[in-house]
């Protein structure tokens, strides 16, 4: 279907592009880890500092010659560029370098294609690959632009490019239809959990932060864990018990990464809905990383993109076993609400504290109240029933309905505001603040926090 490209291989040359003579060493290390996760063998790193990029090849002529010499010296078959290349830049680089060229998006797509195991995951990866490939068809079949005439040589009236674009469009439509069915199945499961009043807690965080290890520690399961980027691709749901709350659903999701391609966010919308619909997010952070605050910002950026920025979030600083001065502890804000827990999924330190903090936040989030409704508020009544928030309903002697509700505080406020009603008079007072064990002193190790208190 596609134009002929040079054969690929495992020996790769990495190209790190910076601007104004600045190079991000952490980003270069992460890109090398991406390459290793994809199965490549990095042979050399070529850094490029440019104020203005070349529209034709991204790189200047001198850097192209250096890159070609590096490829020849290491007998590499692949060039990986830590930058988003346009289709024409990718083609021109392959023509100049005589080897396969992949940009950051193509590399991440390749990793996802290797890791997809479930039917849903494979569909989502294929959808992202097709959307990515559709932009790279133009000028791919230039040798077939002119169709020959004559008996036995006439085609279907389409150029090869048009045929490929139509076939890709048909396949994308079929995948979207299948994913809509998956979304419907997931929504049906969520409605059942809401009717059973089972809250959902979703693990989110930067890739390789230890989400799957923490998931296994909390659930007693054995999902795949590896010290590599994007080890988890398919979401997993398990029921666990939390003290004082009872059963809850724990969801393990795909990790995020800086400059996450938009087509991946769109393709994995069905999986990410588990995050958007969760009652509580556990934002898992690798506390051993020097860039932990920057990685938190990157994850928050993706959460805003998928519409999950308003969901209550608890920071979980994982891997304290790698910090000699760290100890398991729960940090609270001025009102006594847990905001950060330091744990080790590897050793199990701090897991009991984490479960207690989860239960405390879920108890604070769920509210129970009785709401009288006027006859003209039938639409609001229907919305509460659709949200599976109605425990029972009765009517007084005047025929006025009264709903007995139990739902998250944020959902009650949202439903009331959407109906044009004021939620404040009906909200129960918040739970009394608990004494703060540790003040919010920022991203200091727990031992230093205890000394500060």
What does this structure look like?
With 453 residues, this protein is α/β, with parallel strands linked by helices. Among the domains are: 11-107, GTPase HflX, N-terminal domain (Rossmann fold), CATH 3.40.50; 189-364, Rossmann fold, CATH 3.40.50. 40% of the residues lie in helices and 20% in strands. The chain is built from 14 helices and 14 strands. The chain has helices spanning 25-37, 61-74, 87-97, 104-115, 119-134, 160-195, 211-219, 262-267, 269-276, 292-305, 351-365, 378-386, 409-418, 446-452, and strands at 11-18, 41-49, 78-82, 100-103, 200-205, 236-242, 246-252, 280-286, 313-318, 329-332, 338-342, 366-373, 390-395, 401-408. The chain has a seven-stranded mixed sheet with strand order 6-7-5-8-9-11-10, sandwiched between helices. A four-stranded parallel sheet has the order 2-1-3-4, sandwiched between helices. It has a three-stranded antiparallel sheet with strand order 12-14-13. Helix 1 (25-37) runs parallel beside helix 4, helix 4 (104-115) packs antiparallel against helix 5 (119-134) and helix 6 runs parallel beside helix 9.
Q: Count of DSSP helices?
A: 14
Number of strands: 14
Mean pLDDT: 77
The string of secondary-structure elements, in order, is EHEHEHEHHHEHEEHHEHEEEHEHEEHH
């Amino acid at each position: 279907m596609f134009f002929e490209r040079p054969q690929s291989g495992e020996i790769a040359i990495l190209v790190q592009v910076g601007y104004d003579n600045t190079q991000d060493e952490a980003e270069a290390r992460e890109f090398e880890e991406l390459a290793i996760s994809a199965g490549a063998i990095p042979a050399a790193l070529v850094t490029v500092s440019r104020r203005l990029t070349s529209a034709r090849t991204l790189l200047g002529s001198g850097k192209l010659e250096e890159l070609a010499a590096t490829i020849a010296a290491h007998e590499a078959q692949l060039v990986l560029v830590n930058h988003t290349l346009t289709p024409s830049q990718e083609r021109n680089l392959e023509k100049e370098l005589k080897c396969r060229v992949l940009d950051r998006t193509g590399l991440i797509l390749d990793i996802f294609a290797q890791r997809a195991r479930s039917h849903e995951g494979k569909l989502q990866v294929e959808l992202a690959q097709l959307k990515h490939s559709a932009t790279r068809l133009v000028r791919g079949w230039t040798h077939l632009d002119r169709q020959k005439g004559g008996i036995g040589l006439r085609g279907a009236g389409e150029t090869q490019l048009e045929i490929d674009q139509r076939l890709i469009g048909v396949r994308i439509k079929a995948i979207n239809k299948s994913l809509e069915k998956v979304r419907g199945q997931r929504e049906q499961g969520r409605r059942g959990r809401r009717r059973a009043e089972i809250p959902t807690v979703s693990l989110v965080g930067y890739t390789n932060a230890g989400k799957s290890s923490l998931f296994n520690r909390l659930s007693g399961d054995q999902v795949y864990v590896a010290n590599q980027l994007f080890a988890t691709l398919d979401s997993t749901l398990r029921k666990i018990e939390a003290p004082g709350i009872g059963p809850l659903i724990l969801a393990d999701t795909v990790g995020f990464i800086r400059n996450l391609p938009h087509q991946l966010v769109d393709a994995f919308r069905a999986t990410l809905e588990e995050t958007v619909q969760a009652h509580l997010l556990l934002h898992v952070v690798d506390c051993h990383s020097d860039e932990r605050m920057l990685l938190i910002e990157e994850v928050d950026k993706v959460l805003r993109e998928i519409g999950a920025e308003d969901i209550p979030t608890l920071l979980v600083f994982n891997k304290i076993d790698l910090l000699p001065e760290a100890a398991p502890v729960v940090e609270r804000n001025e009102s006594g609400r847990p905001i950060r827990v330091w744990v080790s999924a590897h050793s199990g330190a701090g897991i009991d504290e984490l479960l207690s903090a989860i239960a405390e936040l879920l108890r604070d989030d769920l509210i129970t109240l009785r709401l009288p409704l006027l006859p003209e508020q039938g639409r609001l009544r229907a919305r509460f029933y659709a949200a599976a928030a109605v425990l029972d309903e009765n009517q007084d002697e005047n025929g006025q309905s009264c709903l007995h509700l139990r739902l998250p505080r944020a959902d009650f406020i949202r439903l009331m505001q959407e109906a044009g009603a004021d939620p404040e008079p009906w909200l129960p007072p918040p739970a009394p603040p608990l004494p703060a064990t540790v003040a919010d002193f920022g991203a200091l190790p727990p031992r230093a926090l205890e000394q500060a208190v």
